[in-house]
Amino acid sequence: RGFCEARSATPATVGHWSQIPAVPTDAFKAAPIVSGDPAEAAAVFRTSGTALGAGRRGTHYMLDTALYRAALRVGFGVHLLPEGGPIRIAALVPPPSELPDSSLSFMVGDVLETFGADRSRFYVRKGDLDLNRFVADARDAIVEGQRVLVAGTSFAFVYLLDGLAAAGIHLSLPPGSRAMDTGGFKARSREVERAELYGMIEVGLGIPAAYIVNEYGMTEMSSQFYDGIAGEAAPIGAGRLHHGPPWVRTVAADPNTLEPLDRGAVGILRHLDLANLDSVAAIQTADLGAIADGGFELGGRAEGAEARGCSIATDELLEVMRRGIEG
Predict the structure, then answer these.
(1) How sure is the predictor about 239, in pLDDT bands with cuts at 50, 70 and 90?
(2) Which has the least CB within 10 A, 8, 81, 93, 137?
(3) Preceding amide of 174 cis, omega within 30
(4) Domains observed in the chain
(5) Model pTM?
């Protein structure tokens, strides 16, 4: 509240959602951003370690996960299972029991329980991918004609596909199989362009690009964005746009002034997520993107001077919080 008032943003002055001051994601690394007691949180999600060390990880406290579960199920169902489930899910992420502070593990665990058919499972345990088990289960699914949804980070897909290639294995999962790629090569030694990755998935798993959907989410948010619908996704390079649910609004902002930009102009993305019930709805990211009709085009990440506005906003928020503590 103090942060908004310091920017003269009150119910009497704000006439549009884009005028609500957004809290930069860096603020989640500096202090608890929660409308309640952090000690009473039902779930605590943290971002991955950064160059500043594991102690500077962004933290999202959720006092209740019911709304989060409801929100993620809607987006996943619409974009990955438009024809309905259940479907056999092969998860290339650790289970929530091993990474309880990972929002991705939580999300995949929830959709596996909600939409997963028999023999859905996690294939990453204690940091290792069980390649042999994955291959054996994939071959069973092929024999039975059971469609499979493979979900994981971009790096996990590369690790899996490199392992298959090294073993001379090429799988052709049954028609209707699909993949959910969640991005993420941070702190990894090898990066692969998206078009190349999707080509590797088609060759190694037999899943065509039209059935590969990218999911873009953030630890600090409760909703996710997807760049297509499984079976109908546009070719890579044909202008895939990320879409959010009806309760989310997105705008690209000037990196220096944080003022909203016109459609088509590249800026840093700001999201208003009404599912963020226990923290703040307006989140200012350092992710580059441009707004287009029906969604936004996701770019890279603003670094250094490109994200000056975020740094200033973070400093302002921390100063307000400091004065509140001292007062």
Answers:
(1) confident
(2) 8
(3) no
(4) 1-52+247-327 (no CATH), 65-244 (3.40.50.980)
(5) 0.90
Q: Look up residue 15 and give its DSSP letter.
A: -
Assigned token pair, 303: 């670094």
What does the pLDDT average to over 20-31? 91
Q: Record the tokens describing residue 10, joined without a space.
A: 């009150």
Could you tell me where the DSSP H helices lie in 81-174?
Answer: 103-115, 131-144, 154-166
Burial 14-35 (b: 16+ CB within 10 A, else e): eeeebebbbbbbbbbbbebbbe
29: its two tokens: 């690394």
What are the pLDDT digits (tens) for 256-301?
A: 888 999 999 999 999 999 999 999 999 999 999 999 998 999 988 7
Question: What confidence score (pLDDT) does residue 323 get?
Answer: 58
Neighbours of 85 (CB within 10 A): 16
Q: How many helices (H) and strands (E) does the chain have?
A: 8, 15
Listed in sequence order, the residues at least 6 apart from 294 whose beta carbon sits closer than 8 Å to its beta carbon are 241, 243
Please give the structure tokens belonging to residue 101: 């502070």
The Cα–Cα gap between 150 and 122 comes to 10
Task: Please choose, from the candidates 156, 151, 80, the residue with its C-alpha nearest in 3D space to the C-alpha of residue 121.
Answer: 151
Phi, psi of 288 (to 5 degrees): -80, 145
pLDDT at 77 over 90: yes
Q: What is the CA radius of gyration of the chain?
A: 20
Secondary structure of 64-82 as H, E, C letters: CCHHHHHHHHHHHHHHHCC
